[in-house]
Amino acid sequence: MKVGLFGTLGALFVAGCAKLGLPKAEKSTAGYHERSRSASHCHDCVHFEAPHGCSLVEGSINPLGVCNYFLPG
């Protein structure tokens, strides 16, 4: 998945909100998919918290999933 300028800026904004202690986004809001169809996966994202978490998205996260907040790490 290619991340455009607005996607990157949006991810950075949401990351800043997470550091302020604001609530995590729902999976549907983040555009989360349980399985990625591209080379981008949650386990490669800076927001991924092993083994099944994310600093931006609520709930259990599949390391092979992906969402709109993906930011390669």
Question: How does this structure look, described?
Answer:
It is a single chain. With 73 residues, this protein is mainly alpha-helical. It contains two helices and two strands, in the order ααββ. Strands 1-2 form a two-stranded antiparallel sheet. β1 and β2 (53-54) form a beta hairpin. The longest helix has 15 residues, at 5-19. It starts with a helix and ends in a 19-residue tail after the last strand. The mean pLDDT is 84.
N/C terminus separation: 14 Å
Outline the biggest β-sheet. Answer: 2 strands, antiparallel
- How many structural domains does the protein architecture include? 1
What is the CATH architecture descriptor? Irregular
Return the structural class: mainly alpha
Low-confidence stretches: none
In CATH's first tier, which class applies?
Few Secondary Structures
Give the SSE order as H and E letters.
HHEE
Oligomeric state of this protein? single chain
- Number of β-strand runs: 2
CATH topology: High-Potential Iron-Sulfur Protein, Chain A
Beta-strand content bin: 5-15%
Helix content: 25-40%
Q: Order of strands side by side in the largest beta sheet?
A: 1-2
User: Radius of gyration from the CA trace?
Assistant: 11 Å
Helix count? 2
Q: What is the general shape?
A: globular
Averaged pLDDT: 84
